Amino acid sequence: MLLGAMALFSNDLAIDLGTANTCVFARGAGIVLNEPSIVAVNNVSDQIEAVGSEAKEMLGRTPGSITAIRPMRDGVIADFDAAERMLGYFIKKAHGRRRFVRPRVIIGVPSEITQVERRAVKDSAYRAKASEVHLIEEGMAAAIGAGLPITEAGGNMIVDIGGGTTDIAVISLAGVVYSRSVRIAGNAMDEAITNYVKREHNLLIGERTAEQIKIELGSAAPPVKQQQMEVKGRHVLEGKPTTIVLNDGQVRQALADPVRAIIHAVREALERIPPELSADVCDRGIVLSGGGALLQNFDERLRRETGLPVQVAEDPLSAVVLGAGRMLSDFHLLRKIAIE
Question: For 2-140+320-337, CATH number?
Fold first, then answer.
């Protein structure tokens, strides 16, 4: 009987439905899936051609009959139909394509998500055959995933820089004391690089190239060693394929605005939290999570601008899904922190 019960519960999933990537955590198995949040749809037959990594390979390379769609924008559902199909695909894949599985699902969402957007996320999960859907704030999930002592009476500050949103939260006694979600994060950085290269070098580049530049050359403060890379794209005026060389200083200049906006939001959060919790944050510092936390020297720059200790979570990319995953086996805590 016990084995039967275990098998029943091991269907449960935690999902970090991100703008850039979707991560799925299965109870008892850990992270079973981490793929780009992209769907490739055939415009003629309305069939899905590919989802996730396969669909990302098609970005910017699809024939006229196929469109690569990002169902999520700024951390919320922008294309309801594509999001539902993507969720269904990921849930099936996480269960090894077993049919008739109706898992309980916990999904991390941005803190400033509207009632309508919450409804859309829940409906998508129910249509993708979930039996129960619980939503938790990404900041809270990231704090749990980063191992912060959220149930203690002390302020813990987390800054989760994802693809579409940066979620800032101060948590004490398993409750969110302050939360803010700004729609500037990894994607805004990619866009800033694309615009800079077009403006300064008359070169058009795709989003995959912009992301590659950010990963290899992006930084928030000058690195120890200067770096450069070759970038290929299409010349705006001449229309022919062209190669240029970019260095880290140019990319830092391109990223100046989004980096400044994220730091400004953190400083604003520090000004708004109660004095007692400010003292706690002074002692404990700020924890960074999400893909944006990996931007070279971002922690150092934030440390310099706030005067507080700053550290990057052990596994920043997976903090949200690991935190949501822990809730699968702690329903008492889930009841406290789920948002309805």
Answer: 3.30.420.40
